[in-house]
Structure formats: structure tokens, C-alpha cells
Design a protein that fits this description.
CATH topology of the largest domain: Aminopeptidase
Number of domains: 2
Strand content: 25-35%
CATH architecture of the largest domain: 3-Layer(aba) Sandwich
CATH superfamily of the largest domain: Zn peptidases
Order of helices and strands: HHHHEEEEEHEHEEEHEEEHEEE
Distance between the termini: 46 Å
Number of strands: 15
Oligomer: single chain
Length: about 350
């Protein structure tokens, strides 16, 4: 692994893209802008320190108090005037360049996931928090620590060469990218709702995402859609409680759930036209029952649907509802009831009900 090359390359490309007009060719600018490479090398060690600090102190969605405070502190030290408290813990700052040019925005996410870290690294997370009523480990398992640190590095580089910067750059540090815990609002949708672009409307917004599947020192691009729309669904299978020794006296929602999960796999494998665009339907959690010899009243499931095409998205939702309702009905009167579902497209969240 060669993280030095990787972080320098990411910083270089972001800086080069900003130092030319939107209509220009960023690829040509990389070769022409020696100060970009110099800035990336100069800031590398500082970005590493920032990233490891964020990694060691992760925070769940809508809980990013420390992270937001560190971001705001760093921006103030650069002479910027960050706005805080947007969508709970969002931070925004604007860099005004010394030359005329476009308004653009750079966006990074700050929240972590309910994952227990087992890497053994000296800066590994030992944080815990409450999630869905359980005490869980918290970890930056999706790379948001790297995103936040990278954008802070880019901010410092842009401030240092502000006189040569065309236009204005909005820095957006977004909370709750992974989704606000129900019933809270959060993330990009709430930032927009609270007027993120009311006074500063960028011509373009740029973001990046680290991927473990991309080799260090490489940047991957793709024509067409790359990041899928993300829906979160919930299904509750309602049965009738009885003793495990006499299942005929009740309606077993666990068995109905097992059938539902298995049948739902055919939605993507047999019903979705994957020659058009890929799609994913995943169950992430199943909860039901509390004792080995009691058939419970209900089982609750949550999961995610990822799509690139709106028509496929609507059809998968319809197919899932159909599978849920008819599988439950086949189990002697069990009922499948939809929970809430949330969609995130282009980093925006809206509530949706079946």
C-alpha cells in the first residue's frame, strides 16, 4: 500500500479542477499546475493526522458534534468564517478567489457507521453509542474520515493560493449521509431544506468517495451513473403468539419471514431487467422473538434497495410489496405491514410510504 501517493493524487486532482474554469480541461491543468502538486505534498502529513483523528473519534449520523467542532476550528484557523449547526451538525464555509470565475461547491460527509472496529491499528476506534436500542461499536467503515480530512486539506491549499483562484468555492461538510435515525430528519435533504443554497447557488457540486476496490494511486471514473439511489425499507410481519410446543394455536411470523426473504431474492434475479442497469435488494436486519420456546407476535425487517433507474426502482418496490403481502397471506393469516422507507438520490433524502 502507498497511501502517500493516493492522498497526494486526490488532493492534486481536486485542486487542479478548481484552478481552471468549469469549461476548461482539468486533465491539462494537472500537468500545467506545479503548485498543485507542491501543495498536495506539503499538506499530506497534515491530512493524515486529521484523518486518523477523525477515525479514532467517529460519530453516528446526527451525532457529529466533535467532528463538526474540529472542522469549524480548522476552517477558522485558515481565516474563514464557517457557518455551523446546519442540519444539526453541518458546517459550511466559502472561499472567495482573487480572480473572476464560477461558483462551485465541494462536499464531504462526516458521519460513521455502527460497526465495531477490529483492525488493531494504533488509531483504531474504541467508540460506542446507542443504535436501534442497542449499544454498538462506532467506526468510520465507509471512508468519511478520509473525505472530511481531504476536504480540509483542499481548503487549506485553496486559501494559500487564493489570489490565483477563479471564482468562489463553497465547502460543505455534510452530516448524516448514512441516513438520520428515524424519526429524525438530517443529511443533505435537511441542509437544502434549511437554505444551504439560498444565498450561494453553485454552478456545480463536486464530491469524491474512497473505494477499497480501487488500487492506491489510481482515481476511477465512469460514464453515466456511478452512485446508486438508496432506499431504506421496513417490513413488519404480524402473526399470533403461541407456545413453541403448539404452533397450530398461533400464526408463526418467523416462518413467514423466512419464506419472504427467500422469495424476495427472485425480485432482482428473475424480475428486474439487469441488462438495463444493475440493482440490489438486501435485508440488513431481522428482529423477532425473545425466548426459545415462544412463537412471537411479530417480526420486523429492514433493508436497502439500490437502483440507477427510476422505473426499475418503482417496479422493485411494487414487487417487494407484492411478495411481502402474498407470502404472509399464505401463512394462515399472517400480515405484512410496510414500515417507513427513505430514498437518497444525489445525496438527497425524502420520506416514502408504500
Amino acid at each position: 500500500m502507498r497511501p502517500t501517493i493516493h492522498r497526494q493524487l486526490v488532493l492534486s486532482v481536486l485542486l487542479a479542477a478548481l484552478l481552471v474554469p468549469i469549461q476548461g480541461h482539468a486533465a491539462d491543468a494537472v500537468a500545467e499546475r506545479s503548485e498543485v502538486t507542491a501543495a498536495a505534498r506539503r499538506l499530506h502529513d497534515r491530512v493524515v493526522v486529521l484523518r486518523r483523528d477523525f477515525h479514532q473519534h467517529p460519530e453516528l449520523s446526527n451525532r457529529e458534534q466533535r467532528t463538526a467542532a474540529k472542522v469549524a476550528e480548522h476552517l477558522r484557523a485558515l481565516g474563514l468564517e464557517p457557518k455551523t449547526g446546519i442540519a444539526h451538525h453541518g458546517v459550511v464555509a466559502i472561499i472567495t478567489g482573487g480572480k473572476p470565475g464560477p461558483r462551485v461547491a465541494l462536499r464531504a460527509d462526516m458521519d460513521a457507521l455502527p460497526v465495531t472496529e477490529q483492525t488493531g491499528l494504533p488509531f483504531a476506534s474504541k467508540a460506542t453509542d446507542q443504535y436501534r436500542g442497542q449499544t454498538v461499536g462506532v467506526m468510520h467503515a465507509c471512508g468519511h474520515d478520509a473525505h472530511t480530512a481531504t476536504l480540509l486539506g483542499v481548503a487549506e491549499a485553496l486559501v494559500s493560493m487564493k489570489k490565483d483562484l477563479p471564482g468562489q468555492v463553497m465547502l460543505i461538510f455534510q452530516p448524516a449521509e448514512e441516513g438520520a435515525p428515524p424519526p429524525e430528519e438530517g443529511g443533505a435533504a435537511l441542509m437544502l431544506k434549511e437554505g444551504l443554497f439560498a444565498d450561494f447557488k453553485p454552478e456545480a457540486v463536486f464530491g469524491l468517495h474512497v473505494f477499497s476496490s480501487v488500487q492506491v494511486g489510481q482515481i476511477a471514473v465512469r460514464g453515466g451513473p456511478l452512485m446508486a439511489a438508496s432506499d431504506r425499507f421496513g417490513i413488519k410481519v404480524i402473526g399470533r403468539q403461541t407456545h413453541g410446543s403448539a404452533p397450530w394455536n398461533g400464526v408463526d411470523p418467523i416462518v413467514a419471514t423466512a419464506d419472504l426473504v427467500g422469495t424476495a431474492q427472485t425480485i432482482v434475479s428473475r424480475r428486474a431487467n439487469l441488462s438495463k442497469q444493475p440493482a440490489v435488494l438486501t435485508f440488513g436486519a431481522i428482529n423477532g422473538g425473545i425466548r426459545y420456546n415462544i412463537i412471537p407476535d411479530e417480526v420486523e425487517m429492514v433493508g436497502t434497495i439500490r437502483t440507477f433507474d427510476e422505473g426499475m426502482r418503482q417496479q422493485i418496490f411494487a414487487d417487494l410489496r407484492n411478495v411481502a403481502e402474498h407470502t404472509a397471506a399464505a401463512h394462515a393469516g399472517a400480515r405484512a405491514r410496510d414500515g417507513d422507507a427513505r430514498r437518497r438520490t444525489d445525496r438527497r433524502s425524502v420520506r416514502r410510504r408504500w
